[in-house]
Specification:
The protein is α+β, with helices and mostly antiparallel strands and about 475 residues long. Helices cover about 45% and strands about 10% of the residues.
Length: about 475
């Protein structure tokens, strides 16, 4: 069978399809006299609109033009070589096995394929303009992540100690505060909704471009089968040029990719360096029913044994709260004279941290079976809000009068909404109730406090179940 031959121009210290030209001719087919390229060859690789596109590798993190580092150049060349190898594999696969039937002619003309590619150019240009507008912001965020990631372990310890002192004063040693620089790396390690939307648009455009590129490959296969060397000399560079345009489009948000990589590596290194800490003998007290109280709970249990104090999907090692699956809630009650009658926190789940009411108090409320976010249905009698309501009734008499404030990090499910909004006011008719939910159903911050008289529907909460 025939072999696939190549002729490449050397550019930037490498040879390849993306910067050279593919010669799909039989072995022994020569070039023009003296080894010169045949007339009508593609223009030099630095010509054409695609090369005017500035990729993140060609731009410094700060958004200003800067010389490319040797490491970045090696990485860029390696990416280009992989793209070239993929293109070569496509071309090799297009030849078929020895003795196979000759491929049929493409169902569409070459002009139609090129027109389809040209039709995608405005879409690509719009993405380039969008990236140009966002690039200064991306560069700033990347620089901030690199600065935070560069801090030593000693510097991070000083950050944590200073923050703990401001939050908890003399009790600072009882808490394990996340260093601010590490906290800044958490959002930096993932794409924001805006960045995610942009990369989804890029991938959709890339998919459409790859489909057109595959249609061009059908013409290359057909030209190879009929031995049309002139067509191959024209189509080979086009095929490689299409690959370069696709690669440039994917590189538009390179600063975002770099930021995520830098942040993720530093977070992993920081977590790997931490050890399990023993919790103080004295339990956590004076937890305000607010986001500050939620933060206090996390600071108290951070780096504790995740196998013993479970908050989510981490079941061993130091607790880092990488995925707080369970809800955290805080409840506080004051009597008519302003004296605090109850203060407690709870984490959803059996044997979870926080209050543990007795069975008698729990039987005063009826939980429902409700489906969770993962599709599993179970009784909600171990939810944080349920346990707090039961613990409150265990602490005060039925005729107690006062104000009750409940903070919940996550939205109340249908069962907990019924317990809090309907069953608790029936158990304690003399209370006024205030509920604050920190997150909406989609996880966005809400922070809206709602005051209402007993028995009325709570804004932002599901209606009580009908009796």
């Amino acid at each position: 069978s025939s072999r696939l031959g190549f002729r490449a121009q050397a550019t930037g210290g490498r040879f390849g399809l993306a910067r050279g030209m593919v010669d799909l001719m039989e072995p022994g087919d020569g070039l023009c006299a003296g080894g010169a390229p045949p007339p009508g060859d593609a223009p030099p690789p630095d010509a054409g609109p695609i090369d005017a596109i500035q990729t993140p590798q060609d731009e410094a993190v700060q958004g200003e033009a800067a010389p490319e580092s040797p490491a970045a150049k090696r990485a860029r060349h390696a990416d280009a070589e992989r793209e070239d190898q993929a293109a070569v594999a496509d071309l090799n696969e297009s030849k078929g096995d020895d003795g196979a039937a000759a491929p049929s002619e493409p169902s569409e003309t070459l002009e139609e394929v090129l027109a389809a590619w040209d039709a995608l150019r405005p879409r690509a240009e719009a993405l380039r303009e969008a990236a140009k507008e966002r690039r200064p912001r991306w560069a700033t965020l990347c620089a901030e992540a690199e600065a935070a990631a560069s801090l030593s372990a000693e510097a991070l310890q000083r950050e944590a100690a200073e923050l703990a002192g401001r939050r908890y004063g003399e009790d600072a040693e009882r808490f394990s505060v996340l260093p601010p620089s590490i906290a800044r790396l958490l959002p930096a390690s993932t794409r924001s909704p805006e960045e995610l939307g942009f990369v989804e648009e890029v991938e959709a455009a890339v998919t459409a471009m790859q489909q057109v590129r595959q249609r061009l490959l059908e013409h290359i296969t057909a030209a190879k089968a009929r031995g049309d060397r002139d067509a191959l000399r024209d189509l080979g560079p086009r095929y490689g040029g299409f690959a370069r345009e696709v690669r440039a489009l994917r590189d538009l948000d390179g600063a975002v990719t770099r930021r995520m990589s830098v942040a993720s590596r530093r977070l992993a290194a920081y977590r790997a360096s931490q050890e399990v800490r023993q919790l103080p003998e004295r339990d956590l007290l004076d937890v305000p029913p607010s986001f500050a109280g939620y933060t206090k709970v996390l600071d108290f249990y951070r780096l504790s044994d995740a196998a013993r104090y479970n908050f989510g999907r981490q079941f061993e090692g130091p607790q880092h709260f990488t995925d707080v699956k369970r809800n955290v809630a805080v409840l506080e009650a004051f009597d008519a004279d302003g004296r605090r009658a109850f203060n407690g926190y709870a984490v959803s789940g059996i044997d979870a941290p926080g209050v543990r009411p007795d069975e008698v108090s729990c039987r005063r409320f009826q939980a429902m079976e409700v489906e969770d976010g993962g599709g599993e249905t179970y009784s909600r009698d171990h939810d944080a809000e349920f346990k707090l309501c039961a613990a409150l009734c265990q602490s005060v008499p039925a005729n107690w009068r006062g104000r009750v404030v409940l903070f919940s990090k996550k939205p109340l499910c249908r069962s907990c909404a019924d317990v809090v909004c309907a069953q608790l006011p029936r158990a304690l008719p003399g209370i006024s109730l205030e509920v604050t939910v920190d997150e909406t159903e989609d996880g966005d911050a809400a922070g809206a406090a709602v005051n209402s008289a007993p028995g009325t529907r709570k804004l932002g909460l599901p209606p009580p179940a009908s009796s």
